Amino acid sequence: MKIVCTGYGVIAPKTTNVKQYVSNLKEGICALEVVESAGPHDESNIVGYVKEGLEALEKDRKINRLPRVTKLGIVAAKEAIESAKIDINDKKVGVFFGISLGASGEKLYQNTIKDANEDNYHKMPVTFTHYANMHSVTAAIAHFIGVKGIVKTISTGCTASMEAIEEAMLFLESGKIDIAIVGGTDSPISQATTYAFSKTRVLPLNQALHAGAVPFHEDSKGFAMSEAAGVIILEREEDALHRKASIKGEVVEVVSNNDGNYIFSLDVDGDQMLNALKTIIVNRNPDYISSQALGIQINDRIEEKCSNLLFEHKVPYTSIKSMYGNPFGAIGILQVIASFVSMEYNFIPPTIRTDKKGYEKMNIIMETTYQEINEIAITNHGYGGNNACAYLKKYIS
Question: Is 3-249 a CATH 3.30.1330.30 domain?
């Protein structure tokens, strides 16, 4: 049984839809910016904000009460459904969303915690409990796109949306659903997250755009937090063909695991990522690897290790995080959509802003490369130790 993608939607920094996403990936556009006085000691930081694309929703008072992270998910989901040209009424539909921090970075959430600790009960908003509950984000998205029934939230850090795909595939293969609306959404940027990740020394504080949050570059001091949402529509091949859908590609397999380390330590060996990627590429020949590399040296060195041991540095690697940063639970789905776009238009998106310093042995794509693309492997790692790898193929009827 083949599971195929028939539509997708995206909203991200400098990206209001898939058309713009395609253009930015082809042209290697940096969607990140330097924000001054953002760090704990007034340092600058590199982030990726969504500044366009939510205007229509914000005019609706009912929707405008929702967390920003929910609005992002609604926009991406609506575009995905329109892209798939699918009628979800009277169908067995499942909604699966990957979310890492959800609405916890938003001002309402942060201010409410402060007010509660100061005994300011009268300032407590009636909406807070839903801001604090990650599944309320997914449930609200499902409501506004008109889906009832199976609605699931997966929260495994930055691998969440990739593992949402893994979950959705099981439901499709079992016959419990006929259509899976699968996405990821996160809006994590706040003073709290900036201070927290600064404490662990994984933010590019006081680094310029050419030096900070750069995958595969030894001078990069950390990653760029960003916000985004992406959604794909998954169906069984026979169902998609029956309704004469335009098939974007096939999700062959998703494999996930956990490093199994003490939660306050880091995995520097990457053995579980290596195992997941080894499982996903067995007897397969990817045209390139869409990498989770993000500018944190420990993570990027694990990618280098996988490139060496599994491919002898012959298979090309690239990372869209050089353009879009890391939108936490949404990054996996953004990598998947970028991969389907890559197969449709036959190009490898570049890892911009790097000159491979310290990673010279790797085959890193630094400029957009046009060639036939048929198969792609994706690596994805999350805070908390989860790894998720996916294998995608161009669809051939």
Answer: no
**Residue listed under structure tokens 């942060």:** 110
Q: Within 10 Å of residue 149's Cβ, how many Cβ atoms? A: 12
The confidence score (pLDDT) of residue 264 equals 85
DSSP state, 8? E
Look up the pTM and report it: 0.97
Q: Where exactly are the structural domains of the chain?
A: 3-249, 254-393
Q: What is the pLDDT of residue 133?
A: 96
CATH (residue range 254-393): 3.40.47.10
Q: Which two tokens stand for residue 123?
A: 């300032």
- Average pLDDT (366-391) is 97
Gap between the terminal Cα atoms of the chain:
13
pLDDT in tens, 74-109: 999 999 999 999 999 989 999 999 999 999 999 999
How far, in Å, CA of 189 to CA of 355, rounded?
Answer: 28
**3-249 and 254-393 share one CATH topology?**
yes
**Where does 51-190 have alpha helices with state H?**
55-58, 61-64, 68-84, 107-117, 128-132, 134-145, 160-174
* Interval 127-138: pLDDT, tens: 999 999 999 999
Distances (CA, A) of 255 to 5, 152, 272, 321, 380: 18, 19, 11, 21, 10
Nearest by Cα to 334 from 13, 3, 1? 13
Per-residue tokens: 390: 């996916």
Cα separation values, 301 from 62, 141, 215, 217, Å: 46, 37, 10, 10
Q: 353-376 pLDDT, tens per residue?
A: 999 999 999 999 999 999 999 999
